[in-house]
Task: inverse folding
């Protein structure tokens, strides 16, 4: 599996595919182990890098991962197969905002790492599939150091995207249902848990 992971890292660089930073995925893998997390939902598979590493964190970890880009979805399937993870990882080809999951599905961990401008929508939609003691982890909250600097950016797509991420951070900070901790790891992570269970 190690060879496949290294090959995926190389592929991501060569093909400009954003994959999670090593420190961030190490934090999440440790979190999965420590909290004995079994069912994981990932929004944004890309080429399957984080799904494979999360599934390998513990014997009981199972991952459902959603990807809307066909090329990345196909690449993800290929990598999951190469790692012999077909029984531990279910790859779904669809836009996560359009997907209708069965209401009785519940997850211990939901990992959001897809379209940054849609983070709040992903959170609002999928929180209903979280177990009572479950967690939502979000990646890229620093967004290469731009977050917190939106006022200095020229108008355009980057400014708009950074403002949306800043809005999501405010949404998390002021969310009456969740307690969120922010970690200055990799490109910035947040860990949100239901309040009533604390």
Result:
């Amino acid at each position: 599996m190690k060879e496949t992971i290294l090959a995926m890292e190389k592929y991501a660089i060569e093909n400009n595919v954003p994959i999670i930073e090593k420190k961030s995925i190490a934090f999440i893998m440790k979190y999965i182990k420590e909290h004995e997390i079994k069912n994981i939902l990932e929004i944004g598979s890309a080429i399957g890098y984080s799904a494979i590493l999360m599934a390998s964190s513990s014997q009981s970890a199972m991952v459902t991962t959603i990807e809307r880009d066909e090329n990345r979805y196909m690449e993800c399937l290929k990598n999951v197969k190469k790692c012999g993870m077909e029984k531990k990882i279910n790859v779904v080809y669809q836009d996560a905002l359009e997907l209708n999951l069965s209401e009785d599905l519940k997850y211990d961990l939901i990992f959001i790492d897809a379209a940054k401008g849609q983070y709040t929508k992903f959170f609002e939609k999928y929180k209903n599939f979280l177990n009572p003691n479950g967690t939502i982890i979000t990646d890229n909250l620093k967004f290469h150091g731009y977050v917190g600097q939106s006022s200095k950016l020229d108008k355009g797509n980057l400014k708009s995207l950074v403002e949306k991420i800043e809005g999501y951070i405010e949404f998390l900070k002021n969310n009456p249902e969740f307690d969120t901790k922010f970690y200055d790891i990799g490109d910035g992570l947040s860990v949100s848990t239901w309040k009533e269970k604390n």
Q: What stands out?
A: Strands lie at 39-43, 62-67, 89-93, 107-112, 130-138, 178-183, 189-194.
